[in-house]
Each structure stands twice: as structure tokens, then as C-alpha cells.
Design brief:
eleven-stranded antiparallel beta sheet, 11 strands, 196 residues, mainly beta, 1 helix
């Protein structure tokens, strides 16, 4: 974590072939291929990760194949954190993700996800993200129930200060919302609309 100036990243044990130059994350150019035996992130120690990719000027492009007891996933694509707008363009086939154990969901001790996720978005904050997120053959289990859906797509656009979010899922809901709003306000609006 210290090398990349990322305090959420912990100790790393790995067998990697690494070539590159630089220590400044904004200018660093690295190619890495091999196995990560363990790496700490967000208070959890991930295990058994295969990595093949490049990190160039705060942009990762490559493949990650995780066989951790709490995360079985194949990731392919890029995450670009180098510019004014972050860009994410990747596919992730997730056979298992225990989001509570991985410390992404804290308020529910049962939080499991699996499915295919395709993301093509850009933006730095939730309210300025534009692009498309698709979920295929997805299942999410939490303490409230077991939720399965075949197709779920969210498209977000922002033009002249007007945000539009379209949701299309024959299994769950379809519709859109358009106007000047912040996403944090939607929860309050929905609660007020249904009277809870």
C-alpha cells in the first residue's frame, strides 16, 4: 500500500514477473504476470489470484483470475483512474462473492452475489457517472431473501445538467427517471412515495 500510496492495500506475497519503471503512481509503468498468494485489501486478505496485465499512468488493463474462498471471479478489461473522468470498461464473471466477508457490505452478515457483470462507464462521483452496467444470470442472497434475475441493465446519461437513468430488467423493473437530481435523493423520494 505504501508504494502505491493506497492505505487500503495491505501486505502482498506473490510469485510475479514484474517489469517496468517508476514509483510515482501517476507515472508508473508496470507489466505483471504471475500468482498473488495473498494481498490485503480493505481489511480482508485475498488469496489465490492470477494476474496478467499492465499498469500504466494509473490505468490497469488485463486479466485477473481469483480463486479465493470468498471470491471466485474472472475479470478482463481496464480501469483508468488517470484523467479528469475515471473510466471502467470490463467484464467480470463472478461465480462467488461473499460481499460481507470481503467487507463491501457491513450491515448484513449474509450478502452473496454471483453472475456476469459488464461495465462501460466513466465518471468520478456517483452523480456524474455516465455509461452502461449490465448484469446477466445474476443471483443475490441476503437476509431479506434470494433474488435471481437473468437480465438487468442500467444506462446513465448526463447532458446539459439533465441526468437520465434507464433501468431495464424484464425480471424486476423497467423504467427511467430524468431531470436534475442527486442519486442520494432518490431513496428519500421513493420512501416518501410509498409512505415508509
Amino acid at each position: 500500500g505504501k508504494l502505491l500510496e493506497a492505505p487500503s492495500i495491505g501486505a502482498l506475497t506473490a510469485e510475479l514477473t514484474v517489469r517496468g519503471q517508476g514509483f510515482d503512481p501517476k507515472k508508473m509503468e508496470l507489466f505483471a504476470n504471475g500468482r498473488i498468494h495473498s494481498v490485503g485489501y480493505n481489511g480482508y486478505t485475498y488469496q489465490k489470484i492470477y494476474l496478467d496485465g499492465t499498469l500504466r499512468h494509473e490505468t490497469f488493463n488485463g486479466i485477473i483470475d481469483a480463486k479465493d474462498p470468498n471470491l471466485t471471479m474472472k475479470f478482463s478489461g481496464l480501469a483508468d483512474l488517470s484523467g479528469r473522468n475515471n473510466k471502467f470498461d470490463f467484464e467480470a464473471d463472478i461465480a462467488k462473492a461473499d460481499l460481507h466477508t470481503l467487507r463491501f457490505i457491513k450491515n448484513d452478515s449474509l450478502s452473496q452475489f454471483h453472475g456476469k457483470v459488464v461495465i462501460d462507464i466513466s465518471g468520478n462521483k456517483l452523480d456524474d457517472i455516465v455509461g452502461k452496467v449490465s448484469f446477466k444470470n445474476t443471483r443475490y442472497i441476503n437476509s431479506a431473501g434470494d433474488f435471481t434475475f437473468n437480465d438487468f441493465e442500467v444506462v446513465s446519461t448526463l447532458e446539459n445538467g439533465i441526468k437520465e437513468i434507464s433501468i431495464n430488467s424484464p425480471d424486476i423493473i423497467s423504467g427511467n427517471i430524468k431531470g436534475k437530481f442527486k442519486l442520494a435523493e432518490i431513496k428519500k423520494i421513493m420512501q416518501n412515495a410509498v409512505g415508509s
